[in-house]
Amino acid sequence: MFSVSGRQLAGMLVAVGVVLGAWPARGAEEDIPTAELDPHYKGPKGNHAYTRAMLELGMRMGAATTAALRSNGELAKAALKSFREQQTKVAAMVPSWKGYFPAGPIDELTNAVNAKTDAAARREIVTRIEKTCTTCHARFMFPVQAHYRWGDFSSAVVQTDNGELTFHQLMLDLASGLGAVRGDVAAGQIKDALAAYGKLRERFVSMELLCGNCHEQPRQYFVDANVKARLLKMGGLLRRNVARAADYAPLFNDINEMSCLPCHQVHMPAAFLQMAGRRGKR
Ligand code: HEC
Ligand code: HEC
Ligand code: HEC
Predict the structure, then answer these.
(1) Cβ contacts of residue 88 below 8 Å, gap of 6+?
(2) Which of 21-25, 123-127, 151-155 is the most confident on average?
(3) Contacts (Cβ under 8 Å, ≥6 apart) of 252
(4) Nearest-CA neighbor of 38 among 50, 47, 20?
(5) Domain boundaries, the chain
(6) Most buried in the list 58, 181, 188, 203, measured by CB within 10 Å?
(7) Phi then psi for 157, rounded to 5 degrees?
(8) How far is the CA of 204 from the centre of ligand 1 (A)?
(9) pLDDT at 119 over 70
(10) What average pLDDT does range 226-244 have in this prediction?
């Protein structure tokens, strides 16, 4: 949980937020009620109670709203009842979020079906129900997923000849390796560049083993043959003692564009959200 200073800081931020009438942007992971969510996220990923309850809620809502809009009275009433029951169940799972699940709009829709209100009026109520879902999803779905559905980047490691290497250290090594090769080439130090390249290549190979921390199936993007071909070409230039920086430039660019940047776009939000959450709890 929060340290004393963290709590005080949070208190100050709340005070400032209230005074200014605006919330400061916060590390979203601290926002989620993990104590209430934890019990619903036990066991393997495909079997988390909260996720399953949400999927069921989505199915029941789909059935209920469709039937209500078709004005199939009896079917709609039964489906709306079953949707409402599931919503009550889901709402009870995380008490802090109860207020996000109003029963009012579902009851309104039930009344509209009973009263055979016109389609436009029913459509308007359905839209409001859908909005209640989106309001919470837009704010909490990703932080919950970063916490419970993404693997833990801080504990992802790979074995090397010199022992265990963390995900983060491997990343720093990749970046310094690329920078070192380019710097050495620019300075005409091809021997040093080759040494830096050797380490860079070794780190790139190790990176593929990292994926297995979280992915059971091997992944192609970001570490595929196209990227590796750029890396091998760089080695070829170095071994042939090529010192023209311009020959290397497109290779650095491609490696960044094909591997580093797109992979960061996919994985970094979750990784940094996890990191920010840990810092908030220290
Ligand atoms: C799995 C996809 C993936 C690939 C491919 C990847 N990275 Fe990363 N990288 C990450 C993630 C996730 C983080 C944030 C987590 C961390 O640093 O522990 C990160 C962090 C970093 C950081 C640290 C940033 C910081 O501010 O602390 C650097 C530097 C970095 N990567 C460089 C690279 C370079 C250079 C490449 C390409 C040669 C690369 N990465 C390829 C996923 C990837
Ligand atoms: C108070 C917050 C909250 C409300 C309100 C809420 N949800 Fe969710 N929902 C979540 C969270 C958090 C997740 C992510 C769960 C996970 O990935 O384990 C989620 C995930 C889902 C998913 C899985 C979607 C996906 O692509 O991962 C469905 C379907 C879903 N919700 C349906 C609904 C419906 C329908 C409603 C409205 C009737 C609703 N939810 C209302 C919090 C909420
Ligand atoms: C800490 C856990 C973790 C690590 C380490 C990790 N990933 Fe991912 N990655 C995920 C999650 C979670 C997703 C989103 C859901 C999914 O695809 O399983 C994802 C999504 C992806 C996707 C997009 C979905 C797809 O399959 O097309 C690719 C590609 C990918 N990862 C490649 C990699 C590669 C390559 C590595 C290693 C260099 C890697 N990942 C390392 C957790 C991780």
Answers:
(1) 101, 103
(2) 123-127
(3) 178, 182
(4) 50
(5) 32-148, 153-281
(6) 181
(7) -135, 165
(8) 11
(9) yes
(10) 97
- What does the block give as tokens for 216? 């059971």
Parallel, antiparallel, or unpaired for β 157-160 and 163-166? Answer: antiparallel
- Span 217-226, average pLDDT: 89
| Nearest ligand 3 atom, CA 222 | 35
Pocket test for ligand 1, best of 158, 167, 171 (most atoms within 8 A of CB): 171
* Confidence (pLDDT) at 50: 98
Tokens of 195: 């040494």
pLDDT band at residue 275 using 50, 70 and 90 as cut-offs: very high
When the pLDDT of each residue in the chain is averaged and rounded to a whole number, the result is 89
**Among all ligands shown, which has an atom nearest to the Cα of 166?**
1
Ligand approaching nearest to the C-alpha of 206? 3
**Cβ within 8 Å of residue 161, ≥6 positions away:** none
Q: Which helix (H) or strand (E) holds 164?
A: strand 163-166
